[in-house]
Amino acid sequence: MGDMNTKDFLIGTLVGGIVGATTALFLAPKSGKELRSDISEQAYNAKERTAQLTSDVYEKGNEWADIAKEKSSNLAKAVTDQSQQVVDKVKDLSATAKEEAENQVEEAKSLAKDLKEDAEEAGKNISETVKSEVKDAEKKAKQAAKK
Questions:
Q1: Is residue 49 part of a domain?
Q2: Residue 23 domain-assigned?
Q3: What mean pLDDT is reported for the chain?
Q4: Could you tell me which residues belong to the region Disordered (predicted)?
Q5: Which residues constitute the domain of residue 12?
Q6: What is the pLDDT of residue 1?
Q7: Rounded to an integer, what distance in angstroms lies between the CA atom of residue 77 and that of residue 124?
Q8: pTM for the full model?
Q9: Which among 15, 17, 34, 125 could disulfide-bond with 30, CB atoms 3.0 to 4.6 Å apart, if both were Cys?
């Protein structure tokens, strides 16, 4: 939008200058030879100004293009760097999560082993208690049967 306004302004200035110079030449009281000479001179001046404006616009366009290329290159580099940082963080988080999960699995296995050992111990104790009570009950039954 800004480029179009600048372009329109330059074209308007050029056309306005040519129209103004031509009008001044035609309205000034001069002989045909002088008028033709002035028109030729004004046409040459207009041609020179147009060439100069074209050159200036071309140079500015190249400058703006270079600036745009540089900024887009810097932006692309920044995006690449930030993307790599994100990838690295995700990898670190993934490795940390994996390690944490492995630790939890090992802890769960250890707890299961402890529970199994505790259950076996409790089972042995209960079994011995039941055997002992059965023996006591048999003794009492034998004693009661003898009486």
A1: yes
A2: yes
A3: 83
A4: 118-147
A5: 2-110
A6: 47
A7: 70
A8: 0.41
A9: 34
DSSP annotation of 147 reads -
> Are the CB atoms for 44 and 52 separated by under 8 Å?
no
Residues 63 and 80: their CA atoms lie apart, in Å, by 26
Q: Quick one: average pLDDT of 94-113?
A: 88
The answer to whether residues 3 and 28 touch, using CB atoms and an 8 Å cutoff, is no
Asked if residue 36 belongs to a domain, the reply is yes
Number of compact structural domains in the chain: 1
Alpha-carbon gap, residue 62 to 70, rounded angstroms: 12
Among 42, 46, 62, which residue's Cα sits nearest to residue 11?
Answer: 46
The amino acid occupying position 138 is: E
- Take residue 43 and report the two structure tokens written for it: 């046409």
Tell me which residue has tokens 């995700």.
90
DSSP string over 48-110: HHHHHHHHHHHHHHHHHHHHHHHHHHHHHHHHHHHHHHHHHHHHHHHHHHHHHHHHHHHHHHH
Q: Flag whether 115 is in a domain.
A: no
Cα(first)–Cα(last) distance of the chain, in Å? 121
